[in-house]
Amino acid sequence: MELELKYIQDKDYDVDDNFVIALENIDRNMAILIAVYLEDHMLNLPTNDFTTHIYGGLVHYFDQPVPFVVEVLKASGSYLTFTDLKFIDMNEYLDLVNLNLYIKSNGTYAYPNFSEINKRCNASKPSA
User: Mean pLDDT throughout 101-111?
Assistant: First the structure.
């Protein structure tokens, strides 16, 4: 019996191996939270084949702020590529905010109270 792919959504970004490895090395729920946060707040960067950009992000995991930096590349003729992810302390995140190098969001992304993650997970479950 062959499985059929039910749904494919086109993405306007790509991920590098280092980024995937960083997500694999953390708690699954936190990885999903960060991935949803990044997907919902896609960066609009100028094309540059030789430079990566560093941006800070902040999510809340069990009521604890989790600051991180994401390295991104926007090469000509290519999608935005997330190349790396590192966790930083709050002082480093605030430095990035002062430099206007942070991902701006409209609200707080928090787990376990993040309803958007639950909606996405429940939508992908097969109905009985």
Answer: 77
pTM: 0.76
3-state SS track over the chain = CCCCCCCCCCCCEEECHHHHHHHHCCCHHHHHHHHHHHHHCCCCCCCCCCCEEEEEEEEEECCEEEEEEEEEEECCCCCEEEEEEEECCHHHHHHHHHCCCECCCCCCCEECCCHHHHHHHHHHCCCC
Q: Write the pLDDT tens digit of every residue in 41-54.
A: 877 877 887 889 99
Map out the domains of the chain with their CATH numbers. Answer: 13-114 (3.30.2310)
Among the listed residues 122, 124, 120, the one whose alpha carbon sits nearest the alpha carbon of residue 5: 124
The set of residues, in sequence order, having a beta carbon less than 8 Å from that of 80 and lying 6+ positions away, is 12, 13, 14, 42, 43, 45, 72, 73, 74
pLDDT at 89: 96
